[in-house]
Amino acid sequence: MKIQKRTIALCIYFGLLVLPIYWMLNMSLRTSADILGNFAIYPANITLINYINIFTDHTWYLAYVNAMIYVCMNTVFSLAFALPAAYAFSRYRFLGDGQMFFWLLTNRMAPPAVFLLPFLQLYGNMNLLDTHIAVALAHCLFNVPLAIWILEGFMSGVPREIDETAFIDGYGFPRFFIIIFIPLIRGGVGVTAFFCFMFSWVELLFARTLTITEAKPITAAMTRTISATGLDYGLLAAAGVLTIVPGALVIWFVRNHLAKGFALGRV
Amino acid sequence: MEKWQNNKAWFLVLPAFVIVGFNAIIPLMTVVNYSLQDIFGPGESVYVGLEWFKEMLADHRLHKALQRQFIFSGLVLLIEMPLGILIALAMPRRGWGVSVCLVTLAMPLVIPWNVIGTIWIIFTRPDIGLFGVGINSLDLLEMPFDHTAYWLYAWITVMAMEVWHWTPLVALLAYAGLRAIPEAYYQAAKIDGASGWSTFFYIQLPKMRGVLTIAVLLRWMDSFLIYAEIFSLTGGGPGNTTTFLSIYLVMLATMRFDIGQASAFSLIYFVIVLLFSFIFYQALLNVGRGEKV
Question: Can you tell me the distance from the alpha carbon of A266 to that of A264, in angstroms, rounded to the nearest whole number?
């Protein structure tokens, strides 16, 4: 009996979890006039007009492409910088390691709002404003520390004897690291890539500040629509639904490692 | 695990140090520089020493925002931690339900933060939102539900959004902790005739301590930095009732062009966050040590 009560409670919770997303989906399938004119629990006249508008207007669909470009760039950067550093933290004691790790973490905790103005100047001085690489680099501020944190957890789970054996067998460090070590923690690398992707994808403040038109991501495009043309709820909802799709796809691929990844590899 | 002592490991950390340092140290120095000056325009500035800091520390709007921030972050922990643990306990441990639960739980976490705000605007508006229309049609409230009109409704909406958005993270962490408990522990508890409650308090909760510390750390920090969701949902209003630290800071920095003032505020904000990071980091280290013994 107890199990059943639990299941019912869980179902109610998941119902509430899905409800706001469902409501946005509902709105995205109706015209604005329909939304404002009559209240309906489900769309009576399903229309794809909002989605068609987005896919035929290049300012909209390019915004998706822009976001995808810098998110992928950032994921690659973050992994490339974080992998060796995480290995160092998981295997070696060195001068100032504890302080270094803490300093890296403080950047994950730093309020993005603090960095807003200086970032504008810094990237402006380098003539990088409104480029994908600017956003990708800026997102390294919080993604590299996070990636190091997660990877370090996964790497510490690999016994050190493996490293020792490989070094005795005559492997140099780079060859050992790429051929033996990284494949051993590929689950962890996948999860870390997911987290970098996710945090770069959901971030708005830097992305909006550092871009104007050429590299403007979808999240920023949405806020500008609100202020410029009043509110076209149908269009807004459709754009919102489309922003959920990439994340949902990526979750599906890492679902088995997801829980461990959220625990930063430390279970 | 005993680690090797080798200072050459610095070479492995160097690339990460450079990229993060480039993004963190230069901007931070810029902020320090601004915070000591009064800037009228390009090239026109006067050194004012600690004036901006004195002014910001005495600013009652900052005090109010800080107060709100603490209440908000406190409420976040109070609601999300127990709820997340309950969900993790209720989740199935094997079978097809596991994947469904995990994927559904992770959904809100991959939605861009301002879209979260948009979802909740659409969901709670009194004219088109399911929640807004629903609760108003019940006719229970003294004044009709509208989160733009009354501070309490704004807070309820913001809290509902925050709990909806981030409780899944706590649940996922707690679930990861629960799954790591060997089956033998439960069997032993069963043989001893332990009740559900004592199994929870003496086995599950202690075993989840590490992941729950991470959860508290992440939730406290991230709720302290919250910006985009609230910016797109309430914009800090009605009045200033949902103006938290980040929102107030961006307002100062972009709308009133008081760069010096905003920079001083940034540094005060940063120091507060740093202080908490340090406390939580120490807590985290201690948890790690406790488990190894």
Answer: 5
Residues of B in contact with A87 (CB under 8 A): 12
**Lowest mean pLDDT: which of A232-236, A238-242, B23-27?**
A232-236
A107 touches chain B (CB under 8 A): yes
Question: Quick one: closest CA in B to A5, which residue?
Answer: B90
Confirm whether A99 is domain-assigned.
Answer: yes
Q: Is the CB of B211 less than 8 angstroms away from the CB of A97?
A: no
Q: Which domain holds residue A193?
A: 55-262
**Nearest partner of A215 among A139, A117, A113, judged by Cα:** A139
ipTM of the complex: 0.85
8 Å CB contact of B15 and A240: no
Q: Tokens at residue B217, please?
A: 């750390």
Cα separation, A247 vs A90, whole angstroms: 30
Domains, chain B: 59-292 (1.10.3720.10)
Residues A120 and A217 in one domain: yes
Same domain for A188 and A107? yes
Residues A67 and A15 in one domain: no
pLDDT of residue A70: 93
If residue B241 lies in a helix (H) or strand (E), which one and from where to where? none
State the total domains in chain A: 2
Q: Is A150 on the interface with B (CB under 8 A)?
A: no
| Preferred mutation among A122, A244, A262, A264 to probe B, highest tally of B CBs within 10 A | A262
Region of residue A131 (left: phi > 0; alpha: psi -120 to 50; beta: else):
beta
What's the pLDDT band for B293 if we cut at 50, 70, 90?
very low
Residues A168 and A221 in one domain: yes
Question: Model confidence over B115-124: pLDDT tens digits?
Answer: 898 899 889 8
Residue B44 β-bridge partners:
B41
Q: What is the CATH number of the domain that holds A247?
A: 1.10.3720.10
Work out how many CB contacts closer than 8 A connect A with B: 284
* pTM for the full predicted model: 0.86
Same domain, A166 and A187: yes
The alpha-carbon gap from B5 to the nearest alpha carbon of chain A, in Å, equals 5
